[in-house]
Amino acid sequence: MATDILVLNGPNLNLLGKRQPEIYGHATLADVERGCRSVAREYGFTIDFRHSNSEAQLIDWVHEAREQHRSIVINPAGYSHTSIALMDALSAFSGPIIEVHISNIHRREAFRHLSYVSKVASGVICGLGINGYSLAVHHLACHLNKQA
Question: Is 67 exposed, middle or buried (0-12, 13-18, 19+ CB in 10 A)?
Fold first, then answer.
């Protein structure tokens, strides 16, 4: 059965709430998942929420999404700035893609200013903390409703 929205989380996001809380806050990945599911439920949509530290796993999930999901929210974390392979996989996905970053990557180190994923994303949300995920799900739910 197809899931409406796939939410992918890249490396180190499993450490949310523990790793650099001054940058990423105290919320956990479980908190992010609850928020995404809550917003999706409001609109009658389903969420498939996943995390991996592995670039290959994220790419495999994007490939699967071509047949199993209508849209993607992705926080590629460090792979944003390094993974042309992830960008290429996302470019083969026909639905809308929203890239999310908890911190404002444009106010951080210069190497974080370039995101390969942004080049194929429908939209980018950064610097709004974990609320960016809920905004992305809200946006996609509105978009999917318009398609119906």
Answer: exposed
